[in-house]
Design a protein that fits this description.
The chain is of the alpha+beta class. The protein contains eleven helices and eight strands. It has two domains: about 60 residues, Winged helix-like DNA-binding domain superfamily/Winged helix DNA-binding domain (Arc Repressor Mutant, subunit A, Orthogonal Bundle), CATH 1.10.10.10; about 170 residues, Beta-Lactamase, CATH 3.30.450. The strands form two sheets. A six-stranded antiparallel sheet has the order 5-4-3-8-7-6, sandwiched between helices. The chain has a two-stranded antiparallel sheet with strand order 1-2. The two termini are about 30 Å apart.
């Protein structure tokens, strides 16, 4: 049986749990972190309302309160970057392909979550465990949505909750889905996080081997001592985004028999149904 990551990592994980979950909280941001030029550019893009096919610099200036000379530089830059397109004849701007693509991605994600919601709740009810849908977000894993089962769990997570990559089932599933080159990049980029959580390169490779053999990864008390979880990856066919599906609950429920004979196969079957 594949070993869990060292217990020293689990013992030290609780204080870090709170730190990572609030790492990007809006209340922590101050003006020194703001990039003013970027903020002005986003305000210009946000000037489009439903029904606006095109806008000129004069309208951008009116809606943002920015000087027209500043608006002209911003719209020129956004057009060069593909977020706006410029109509030379009418001297107006329309939303460009990159801006439209972001909208399509956001709508696809919303549709995905809406369609999955009843299925995920059913899985939570059947297993009694908490079901999570997440993605990697910079140096952490981010919950997009959660569904609660009947098991009493000491850790409550919510959409927007962030947690470490290397000691959680979600993070380990993400690592197992990477190509060898992508994995090396992540290991180099987050070597400090690995060191802080007591995770070695060998531990990561063990989890990847576990995913290859069993189809899922696990974290049994490695992040929070009394919590266990398993996870698998889920990909949309239309783009490269890696989603993670997880099942988690109190560690006393996560016996080897329960994990490998009941919820592991159930989670894999559920993932296959979603992808189909």
């Amino acid at each position: 049986m594949i070993k869990s990551t060292k217990k020293t990592a689990a013992k030290r994980s609780k204080p870090r749990q709170a730190a990572i979950s609030s790492a990007l909280s809006p209340s922590d941001l101050d003006d020194s972190q703001l990039i003013s030029a970027l903020l002005r550019g986003l305000n210009v893009l946000s000037s489009f309302h439903v029904g606006d096919n095109e806008l000129g610099n004069h309208e951008f200036a009116e809606r943002t309160g920015l000087p027209k000379a500043t608006v002209s530089r911003i719209t020129f830059t956004l057009a060069k970057a593909g977020f706006l397109t410029f109509d030379q004849r009418q001297r107006v701007y329309r939303l460009g392909p990159k801006a439209l693509n972001l909208g399509f991605i956001a709508r696809a994600d919303n549709d995905l979550r809406a369609n999955m919601r009843p299925l995920m709740q059913r899985l939570a009810d059947e297993t009694g465990l908490n079901v999570g849908l997440g993605v990697r977000d910079k140096d952490a894993m981010l919950y997009l949505d959660t569904w609660e089962g009947t098991a009493l769990v000491g850790l409550k997570v919510y959409p927007g909750f962030r947690m470490p990559i290397f000691t959680t089932a979600m993070g380990r599933a993400y690592l197992a889905a990477l190509t060898p080159d992508e994995l090396e990049t992540v290991l180099a980029e987050f070597s400090r996080q690995m060191s802080d959580t007591g995770v070695r390169r060998e531990d990561v490779l063990e989890q990847i081997e576990h995913a290859r053999r069993f189809g899922f990864v696990r974290s049994i008390g490695d992040w929070v001592e009394d919590i266990g979880a398993i996870a698998v990856t889920f990909r949309r066919p239309d783009r490269r985004q890696i989603y993670i599906l997880s099942l988690g609950g109190p560690i006393y429920k996560m016996t080897d028999f329960f994990v490998y004979n009941e919820i592991g196969p159930k989670l894999l079957h559920f993932r296959d149904q979603l992808e189909a």
